[in-house]
Write a structure and sequence with these properties.
The protein has 217 residues and is α/β, with parallel strands linked by helices. It contains 11 helices and 5 strands. Strands 2-3-1-4-5 form a 5-stranded parallel sheet, sandwiched between helices. It is globular and about 45 Å long.
Length: 217
């Protein structure tokens, strides 16, 4: 699916909220997106919109996903291979699933954008690429730093955080490549790329707030 098709969305032309600031954030696992995003939203007086799928969702095995999260199960099905495990899948059905997933996500992201705010993940940098008053941010950092931060924030061991990091960074990227044809780990679609191993989270939030204020009305 092309970026143009994926990003357009059915509500794009008539979005009534393009005057409201929006910040999209994608993170490499453990780079501090939730902490930074909440601080930015609070400072700007805007809503905070979390990830569609949590780390716990992505950590769950296939049986648990099928029981508890029909949307994620459908995403895995369209991804196939180790995620869906559907050999000889119906190509037409899979393409329809992809289309439905993209359209549903586009509608959700544009609805959040109409309110303004900070949007984590959801391929916001592609969907809202041409939206005015929008800043796109990538948070990254050294792998070991990110694992340590994630373990501390989630109250889990570093071993579990390391397993989550390996899986989550891969799964989130594969979702974006499958549904939107881009790799969110690459920097080219972002206005700001911040290394939170070198820039403290408070300073990262301040930088994003400043960027939002000088680039949005």
């Amino acid at each position: 699916m092309s970026d143009g098709t994926a990003g357009a969305g059915p509500d794009r032309a008539r979005d009534p909220g393009t005057d409201r600031p929006v910040i999209t954030i994608f993170e490499h696992y453990g780079a501090g997106a939730t902490t930074v995003g909440r601080r930015v939203a609070e400072e700007l007086g805007l809503p905070f919109h979390p990830q569609a799928f949590s780390s716990e969702d992505l950590e769950a095995g296939p049986d648990a996903v099928l029981r508890s999260n029909a949307v994620l199960a459908t995403v895995y099905s369209t991804m196939g291979g180790a995620y869906g495990g559907f050999e000889g899948r119906d190509v037409v059905a899979t393409q329809q699933q992809k289309y439905d997933l993209v359209m549903d996500n586009n509608r959700a992201v544009w609805a959040e954008a109409a309110e303004g705010g900070v949007i984590l993940g959801r391929n916001g940098a592609v969907i809202l690429a041409d939206r005015p008053n929008t800043v796109h941010v990538l948070l990254t950092g050294d792998r070991e730093d990110r694992i340590a931060r994630a373990a501390s924030e989630a109250g889990i061991t570093t071993d579990q955080a390391a397993r989550r990091q390996e899986r989550e960074d891969q799964v989130r990227a594969e979702m974006s490549k499958t549904l939107y044809g881009w790799d969110p780990r690459l920097p080219d679609r972002y206005d700001l790329v911040i290394n939170t191993s070198r820039i403290p989270l408070d300073a990262a939030a301040d930088a994003i707030v400043h960027a939002a204020r000088v680039t949005t009305r």
